[in-house]
Design brief:
The chain is 28% helix and 25% strand. With 342 residues, the chain is an alpha+beta fold. The protein has two domains: 129 residues, 3-Layer(aba) Sandwich (Aminopeptidase), CATH 3.40.630; 150 residues, 3-Layer(aba) Sandwich (Aminopeptidase). It has an eight-stranded mixed sheet, with helices on both faces. A four-stranded antiparallel sheet has the order 1-2-3-4, with helices on both faces. The longest helix has 15 residues. The chain is elongated and about 70 Å long. 38% of the residues are buried.
């Protein structure tokens, strides 16, 4: 029987047997570095390290630069540590290319026994419990065994980047109801714009991390409605994961009324046409609907690209198609949950 067990000093002997079996090979998903072996061999230091692995799971944990909160587990079969797995709670720009949400490894002595598939399946369950969907899992392009494992667990290959295969796996996790925290999507983070940033945008200041052309006129109109500290309905930067740059904004036209909320969104020109807006709007809509809200939008009649995005996500025109008004009104169909979700 395969289990994912919280790191514990009670399994230290078994842990070190696994480490020895790797013979210096990188142990993915372990946070262990061979250079630290002698230090961690000291029992008190090993205990501190195990405690640190547990603290990494907490969202308020103080982590080194470049690290994200993660759930660390040891893969155990019949009481013996045979591998490691880590479920990262968010993606950085580098993790989006290599590393992904889940890193895992199985001891060389226990490979080709179905342990990796079982462990990855359990790891996907942990990701689902954290509300992560979809999950990015990567492997070297030359690691055919790992690629087969990921595929067997539902992985869909997106592409290969610098010799790394990038697979996405749906977990079926429900979206988190919208709140003041960032919304995570596959391609972006939707980060609430602070009052200070809004003032800088209105003053025409440029900030590091803002793409050329950002903010647009529509972005300035959005932050013009921000009069206090950001909340769930405030405008958000669309921060592209691939380069960490803010390339647009998305938000609501005020709090919901009678259970209905209207969204507005847009990207700088160089960020359009690659599916980013579909991914971003999908994440926003899922969070709004998880809060029990119905979602609407307005578009200009000539904005064909926006029409396609809305239609792809299950929106339909809710006004009279023959109306020659200045804007078109869209509402998401009640049966559209899941349609086009990224």
């Amino acid at each position: 029987m395969i289990e994912l067990v919280r790191p514990t000093v009670d399994l230290s002997d078994s842990w070190w047997e696994m480490v020895d079996d790797f013979a210096g090979e990188t142990i993915h998903g372990s946070s262990y570095r061979a250079a630290d072996r002698e230090v961690l061999r000291v029992p008190d230091t090993f205990e501190e390290w195990v405690d640190w692995l547990g603290r990494m799971e907490r969202p308020d944990a103080a982590l080194p630069e470049g690290r994200v909160a993660s759930t660390n587990r040891w893969v155990v079969r019949d009481g013996r540590v045979v591998g490691t797995i880590a479920v990262r709670h968010a993606l950085t720009a580098s993790l989006l290319v290599e590393g992904g949400h889940i890193g895992y490894a199985v001891s060389p002595a226990f490979r080709r026994q179905g342990i990796a598939s079982a462990a990855l399946g359990l790891g996907l369950g942990l990701a689902a419990s954290r509300g992560i969907d979809p999950v990015l899992v990567t492997c070297d392009a030359t690691n055919t065994a790992s690629a087969r494992t990921i595929t067997s667990c539902g992985g869909i290959l997106e592409d290969e980047r610098d010799g790394v295969l990038r697979h996405w796996v749906r977990t079926g996790a429900p979206a988190q109801p919208i709140g003041p925290a960032p919304i995570e999507t596959r391609e972006a983070r939707l980060v609430p714009i602070t009052s200070e940033e809004a003032a800088a945008m209105r003053a025409g200041e440029r900030r590091d991390g803002w793409a050329e052309g950002y903010p647009r006129e529509d972005d300035l109109d959005a932050v013009g409605m921000l009069t206090s500290h950001p909340d769930a309905w405030s405008p958000r930067h669309i921060v592209r994961r691939s380069d960490g740059r803010a390339v647009g904004s998305i938000g609501c036209f005020g709090p919901p009324e009678a259970g209905v909320v209207e969204v507005g969104y847009g990207l700088v020109e160089q960020a359009r046409g690659g599916g980013l807006m579909t991914d971003v709007l999908s994440g926003m809509v899922r969070s709004l609907e998880a809060a029990g809200l119905s979602v609407t939008a307005h578009t200009e009649p000539g904005n064909v690209a926006s029409h396609r995005v809305l239609a792809r996500l299950g929106f339909e025109r809710a006004d009279d198609p023959g109306d020659a008004g200045a804007e078109w009104f869209w509402a998401r169909r009640p049966d559209a949950r899941g349609v086009g979700d990224a």
